Amino acid sequence: MPATSTASAPAHPPAAPKTRAAAVSRAVLKTEARLFLREPGSLFWILVFPTLLLTILGLIPSFREANPSLGGRRTIDLYVPVALLLAAITTGIQVMPAVLTGYRERGILRRMSTTPVRPAALLGAQIALHGGATVVSMALALTVGRLAFGVALPGQLAGYVLAAVLTLCSALALGCLLCALSPTTKAASVAGSAVFFPMMFTAGVWGPVQSMPDMLQQVVQLLPFGAASQALAQASSGHWPGWSHLAVLAVWALVLGHVARRRFRWE
Known about the structure:
By secondary structure, the protein is an all-alpha fold. Helices cover 72% and strands 0% of the residues.
């Protein structure tokens, strides 16, 4: 009689590559989250600073009075969207690039390439953590604006969320580009500072975009945070954000992200 095989399939077959990759990514995210929460400076600038600035401005009596030149709106009403933009700018330009360039400069990414943990998992974890923290900061600014200063919630919520998401994507893409072009942490800090203040101006930190001269508004709204300011202001007043502003945000996010991906080096 022909011999019959008594071999049986393993009780626990090896995990599929995709399953292992997902498990590794979750482990990296968990580890990076613990490290992220141990950085009080980063948490302050992302979570506290935008709302703190909004609170300081809201305590100025004239900012809580209706302004005919702003269509009857109050200055503080315009600064709530600015606080959201400031959270995205701070995260993308000041905080995240320093972390990623620090990992590269210390050789962490190079050493990771010899382990089952791929550098891309670390990059994805950093983007997820910083993006999530920015969302919390935006929600905090909206809550304080509403409860402390009576700022109305966005009249067009779906358009407001869409504009905020595109803004965050643009900010994170810009942060990845700064990291890609900066060989060291110090270089990333210098480049971030050089970009940070112009972006704050286009976002309306020193004066709402809506109060700028018409010619300056036309120029500013071609930049990501100027377009974001206009889109958020329109959604706040109950209108769907202008498609041109949303398109500017989407194009900047795609272009910056593409260039960052092409120029990014793990070592």
